[in-house]
Amino acid sequence: MINITKPYLPDREKLNEYIDGIYDRAWLTNNGPLTQELTQRLEKYLGVENLLLVSNGTLALQVAYRAMGVCGKAITTPFSFVATTSSLVWEGIEPVFVDIDPETLCIGSSEIEEAITPETTAIVPVHVFGNACDIEEIETIAQKHGLKTIYDGAHAFGVQYKGKSILSYGDATTLSFHATKLFHTIEGGAIIFKKKEDYETAKLMTTFGINGSDSIVELGINAKMNEFQAAMGLCVLDEIDIIVEKRAKIWQQYHKELEDFLQIPLLKKNTSNNYSYFPVLFQNEETLLRVKAALNEQKINPRRYFYPSLDTVSYLHLHQNQEISKDIASRVLCLPVYPGLEEFEVQSITDIIKSCLLTKKK
Ligand SMILES: *Cc1c(COP(=O)(O)O)cnc(C)c1O
Which end of the chain is more exposed for a tag (fewer CB within 10 A), N or C? Predict the structure, then answer.
């Protein structure tokens, strides 16, 4: 069986050593030494400051909205994992969708301005599949209208934009370290803040708003990363260059085999590839379903990332849909990419896809 991804399991002996240390100290959570070490090593590896580790990528978004004072309405993209939207709704913020750019699959910056109303307090764009949003345009709009920008960077681990970390743009950027992501801590996430004071506010929020031991100074929640998560993260981080290299090889093989047959979303100029996803676009949903069924028959399980378009989610009760996002969501498929996926397996995946595309509908 070949699934869309397979969680990366790092060197077991090294992990055991970290766990021995946790046993010796009996310090399991609450900003322990491994959490501190992972924070420092991630800041260095990613080239960022003010990085706050949290227990998952969804809480990273929720805490970021709170710390930045987001309320009322936020402009966001309908083409993402559901957590981008559900985290807003969960925090009582109304998502206002702006349709996507059909080439990069990120929010279309030219229509953001007309979606702004007096209730709008933030823009929440997503660097979809690690591709950069229109960062400069979004920054100009946010400044002009006094809005906060919080990027969902769950796919953008290690991506460079114009020679610096893509995570350093905006007022804050969130990451997910879920087991299925490029870098993981089993469950986990992080927020990178532009300003130190926002980092401090958020840190307080992740520990119930308790400052020191006796004073409650802020409305908080529990969003702490624990030492076992940090131990996994430290082990995976040691192997991150190998992980990216192996993904790159798979990515390039898919690209070479499929570029003449299928539309592959374009990487924006000045953006580095972290090879975390390999999305392809079929001509229509019927073809996608035919290819998916043929792959499933051979126990190969690609995923419809992202489907459905989030503006169609029932609890939002929206009646006006975003046409480009709906269209793309109906015919986009992500192919399996993970270290350990063999060359011959990628070959058989691309062979199945090509033979499906070449045989006409019966
Ligand atoms: C994975 C993901 C999340 C949620 O992260 P979790 O760590 O699973 O809570 C949010 N946004 C996007 C775009 C994601 O892909």
Answer: C
Question: Which of 3.90.470.20, 3.90.1150.10, 3.40.50.150, 1.10.1040.10 is the CATH number of 240-361?
Answer: 3.90.1150.10
How many angstroms is it from 152 CA to the middle of ligand 1? 8
CATH code: domain 2-238 is 3.40.640.10
Proportion of the chain above pLDDT 90, given as a percent: 96
Task: Return the best residue to mutate from 4, 53, 55, 58 for the ligand 1 pocket (most ligand atoms within 8 A of CB).
Answer: 58
Q: How far is the CA of 176 from the centre of ligand 1 (A)?
A: 5
> Of all helices (H) and strands (E), which one includes residue 333?
strand 332-335
189 Cα: distance to centroid of ligand 1 (angstroms): 9
pLDDT at 58: 98
Task: Give the angle 285-286-289 at the CA atoms, nearest 5°.
Answer: 85
Q: Token pair for residue 86?
A: 């559900």
